[in-house]
Amino acid sequence: QVQLVESGGGLVQAGNSLRLSCAASGRTETMGWFRQAPGLGREFAASINYRSSRTYYADSVKDRFTISRDNAKNTLYLQMNSLKPEDTAVYYCASRKTPTSSAYYLFEHQYDYWGQGTQVTVSS
């Protein structure tokens, strides 16, 4: 069983940066970050495949967010720059359990394990 624990959320002003971390225990495969704003469904933000180093980003975060992974620490990161108020959400990390070379997994049902989430609030 894989356990995922996110950290690094907080309150920041628009234009600033924040880095989220997701510490994993157990074997993980393609991993991703999702977010859920108040009153809305969970949406895909970014994903990474450590076997191929492929990454994929939602248009809304592309060129501002960077997903990375430290395999030695079994930790996933999301560097968020140029934050906007519309980035305010609970951010979740997730992992698939099936080995693959793809990072193109955009939907919740494609992931098997989830963290508890960390709140990011961006003030204007």
Give a topology summary:
Layout (H helix, E strand, L loop, with lengths): L2 E5 L2 E4 L4 E8 L5 E6 L5 E7 L6 E3 L7 E6 L4 E6 L8 E7 L17 E2 L3 E6 L1
Parallel strand pairs: 2-11
Antiparallel strand pairs: 1-3, 3-8, 4-5, 4-9, 5-6, 7-8, 9-10, 9-11
Structure description:
This protein has strands at residues 3-7, 10-13, 18-25, 31-36, 42-48, 55-57, 65-70, 75-80, 89-95, 113-114, 118-123. The strands form two sheets. Strands 2, 4, 5, 6, 9, 10 and 11 form a seven-stranded mixed beta sheet that branches. A four-stranded antiparallel beta sheet has the order 1-3-8-7, with no helix packed on it. It is built from no helices and eleven strands. It is globular, with a radius of gyration of 13 Å. The termini are far apart. The chain has 124 residues and is an all-beta fold. Helices cover 0% and strands 48% of the residues.
**Looking at the structure, what is the overall shape?**
globular
> Which structural category fits the helices and strands?
mainly beta
Query: Beta fraction of the residues?
Result: over 45%
Largest sheet: 7 strands, mixed
Helix content: under 10%
Q: What is the succession of H and E elements?
A: EEEEEEEEEEE
The end-to-end distance, rounded to whole angstroms, is 40 Å
Query: Could you name the ranges where pLDDT drops below 50 across 5 or more consecutive residues?
Result: none
The average pLDDT value, as a whole number, equals 96
Number of strands: 11
Total of helices: 0
Radius of gyration using CA atoms only: 13 Å
